[in-house]
Each structure stands twice: as structure tokens, then as C-alpha cells.
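Morning F.,

Quick status update on the modeling queue. The single chain you submitted on Monday has been processed. Sequence for confirmation:
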Amino acid sequence: MEIAIFQALKGVGVSEADARTAAEAIQHGVRTEVRDSTRDMATKADLADLRGDLVHRMSDLQRFVVACVFESSGMLAVMITVFNYLR
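C-alpha cells below.
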């Protein structure tokens, strides 16, 4: 790509030194943008770790919900017993 930019600039009358400097600056800018944009991409290993963490958290949440259901049932049984005792 750098050679094509250099040749295009030379073709429109830019001096060789200026064309080379401009082509190198453009190439450097493109490489920097590509490097910066790929830095935040997830790898397969990252996604596998995330999936494992998500499964673990969902399992914890499921246990919590089941415990809450049993706890609520127990509380309801106690409340019914107390209500019947007070009547």
C-alpha cells in the first residue's frame, strides 16, 4: 500500500521526499488504527472464559432462587400456623 501511495503522489507532481514522507505517515496511521481497533477484540479463549463465568453465575442464581422458594414456603407455613393459632 505504501508503494501505491508513493507512486500516486509522485504521479501528481509531489517531490520524491515529500511523497515518501506522506506515504510513510499514512502507512503508520493505518497500522496504528488497525492495532488500536484489534486490541479490544475478544479471542476464542476470552469467550470461553466468559462463557464459563456466565454458566457459573447462572448456576449460583438458580440455587439462590430455589432457596428463596423453599424459604418463602416455610415462611408461609409459619404464618398460616400462627394465624390459625390466633383465631
